[in-house]
């Protein structure tokens, strides 16, 4: 069956869609940011699972024996994801700072209430 | 939190271990999993644990926000400074082969190791200082709910 | 992992949601370790379960504590339909992808073997990920450090350095000391 070869992608898709659903269907801003984090982490798992070689090991050179006999898993996705994690926490911190300011300005962090306040202002 | 003896004792006990582990991860990043980012985050986590137990005021007396902000810039400057040092010593920008006198062959592993050490330290310093700065900003905000 | 993610969607108490997101990060760090990406796992554990949880708790302290019950019945069907359609397209897209763990996948062919083989002689550092990050792709790491620096700048501009006075709604500017 094709499932046993592709199941890692499908697991990631389930997680990704859960995060996506949290972002678009919940109005609370903090929950949206958490949903975005879930989405991000699932993408990290996707990349790393693509870099895995079955029978390989962590990409750290072992001393002594020649490397010809040891298979290493691909280090390049790991490098990319390392950068992505730190950038992700940077954007999360900025997003949360914005949430704090929105709360001070509007008194609420629910998306619907903020829209209502903006519409009242506009009238 | 200060009044809870278990949390306080365990926190005080673990804090030196956390900071030492951060330094270990930083400088051992060449031989084991680790490197600048992990070390910076673990160091900041140690500082945050201390601040949660003993309060923000005392933490800010030990690590004033101005010093931490200086650390943010210094780490990045160290990184770029290493790049320029490579440039002035004859190689390309961030070409660490130029940092130390050449051994045999076209590549210079010792220069590379020195360059990586310095660069990762710069990254670790910036990341730790940034995390602590963001934490100070969030917890220093007056709660006017 | 999927269970924690689903619980995050359903629960309304924000403290529980934040704790669950920390658990989610920890489980994903364990998963990443079994996938041989040990540097990434360490970073994800420290960042996801440490820093992000602390920042979320700080934000929750400064704002409300719970998600509000929707005042008018939100139409839950539309987001669910969007999510299912997108998921379906993504699954269709994965049918052509290389099998999990195959050693002859295209991404293992040209660049990665060159880095693995040349690291010992060119860089001399056993940890290939650190060698690539700091030496072969040093520019990218410089850019990333700049991004982290900019995040600190942004948060300082938004949340200020001193304790702020309360601003009225018609003041649009940022804080001054």
Describe this structure in words.
The complex is a heterotrimer of chains A (123), B (145) and C (177). Chain A is mainly alpha-helical and 123 residues long. Chain A has helices spanning 3-25, 29-51, 75-106, 111-122. Chain A contains 4 helices and no strands. In chain A, helix 1 (3-25) runs antiparallel to helix 2 (29-51) and helix 2 (29-51) runs antiparallel to helix 3 (75-106). In chain B, 72% of the residues lie in helices and 0% in strands. Chain B has helices spanning 5-27, 36-54, 56-62, 65-88, 109-139. The model of chain B has no long low-confidence stretch (mean pLDDT 85). With 177 residues, chain C is an all-alpha fold. The chains are: A mainly alpha (123), B mainly alpha (145), C mainly alpha (177). Chains A and C meet through helix 1, helix 2 and helix 3 of A and helix 1, helix 2, helix 3, helix 4 and helix 5 of C.
Oligomer: heterotrimer
The fraction of residues assigned to DSSP E strands of chain B is under 5%
Helix count from the secondary structure assignment of chain B:
5
Principal-axis shape of chain A: elongated
Share of β-strand residues of chain A: under 5%
How many domains of chain B? The number is 1
Mean pLDDT of chain B: 85
Which structural class is indicated by helix and strand composition of chain A? mainly alpha
The residue ranges of chain B in which pLDDT falls below 50 over 5 or more consecutive positions are none
Output the radius of gyration of chain B: 19 Å
Number of E-state strands of chain B: 0
The helix/strand class of chain B is: mainly alpha
Fraction of helical residues of chain B? over 70%
Write the layout of secondary structure elements.
The complex is a heterotrimer of chains A (123), B (145) and C (177).
Chain A: H1 3-25, H2 29-51, H3 75-106, H4 111-122
Chain B: H1 5-27, H2 36-54, H3 56-62, H4 65-88, H5 109-139
Chain C: H1 2-10, H2 14-34, H3 38-62, H4 77-94, H5 111-122, H6 128-136, H7 138-159
Give a brief outline of the structure.
The complex is a heterotrimer of chains A (123), B (145) and C (177). Chain A has 123 residues and is an all-alpha fold.
Name the features.
heterotrimer; B: 145 residues; mainly alpha; 72% helix; 0% strand; elongated; C: 177 residues; extended; disordered C terminus
């Amino acid at each position: 069956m094709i499932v046993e070869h592709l199941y890692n992608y499908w697991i990631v898709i389930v997680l990704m869609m859960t995060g996506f659903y949290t972002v678009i269907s919940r109005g609370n801003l903090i929950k949206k940011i958490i949903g975005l984090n879930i989405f991000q982490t699932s993408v990290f798992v996707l990349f790393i699972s693509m870099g895995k070689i079955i029978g390989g090991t962590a990409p750290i050179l072992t001393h002594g024996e020649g490397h010809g006999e040891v298979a290493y898993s691909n280090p390049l996705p790991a490098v990319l994801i390392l950068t992505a994690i730190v950038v992700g926490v940077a954007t999360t911190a900025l997003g949360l700072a914005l949430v704090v300011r929105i709360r001070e300005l509007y008194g609420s962090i629910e998306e619907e209430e903020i829209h209502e306040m903006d519409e009242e202002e506009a009238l | 939190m200060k009044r809870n003896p278990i949390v306080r004792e365990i926190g005080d006990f673990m804090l030196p271990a956390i900071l030492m582990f951060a330094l270990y991860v930083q400088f051992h990043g060449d031989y084991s999993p680790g490197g600048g980012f992990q070390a910076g985050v673990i160091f900041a986590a140690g500082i945050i644990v201390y601040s949660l137990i003993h309060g923000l005021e005392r933490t800010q007396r030990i690590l004033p926000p101005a010093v931490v902000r200086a650390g943010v810039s210094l780490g990045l400057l160290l990184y770029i400074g290493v790049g320029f040092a490579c440039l002035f010593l004859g190689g390309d920008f961030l070409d660490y082969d130029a940092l130390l006198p050449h051994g045999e062959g076209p590549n210079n592993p010792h220069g590379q190791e020195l360059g990586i050490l310095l660069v990762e330290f710069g990254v670790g310093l910036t990341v730790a200082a940034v995390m602590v700065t963001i934490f100070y900003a969030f917890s220093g905000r007056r709660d006017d709910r | 992992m999927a269970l924690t993610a689903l619980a995050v969607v359903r629960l309304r108490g924000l403290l529980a949601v934040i704790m669950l997101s920390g658990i989610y990060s920890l489980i994903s760090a364990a998963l990443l370790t079994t996938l041989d990406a040990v540097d990434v796992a360490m970073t994800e554990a420290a960042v996801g379960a440490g820093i992000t949880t602390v920042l979320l708790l700080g934000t929750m302290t400064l704002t409300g504590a719970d998600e509000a019950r929707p005042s008018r019945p939100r139409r839950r069907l539309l987001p669910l339909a969007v999510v299912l359609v997108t998921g379906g397209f993504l699954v269709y897209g994965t049918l052509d992808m290389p099998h999990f763990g195959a050693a002859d996948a295209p991404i293992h062919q040209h660049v990665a073997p060159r880095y693995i083989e040349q690291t010992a002689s060119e860089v001399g550092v056993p940890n290939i990920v650190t060698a690539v990050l700091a030496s072969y792709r040093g520019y990218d790491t410089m850019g990333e450090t700049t991004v982290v620096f900019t995040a600190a700048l942004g948060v300082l501009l938004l949340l200020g350095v001193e304790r702020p006075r309360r601003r009225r709604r018609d003041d649009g500017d940022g804080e001054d000391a």
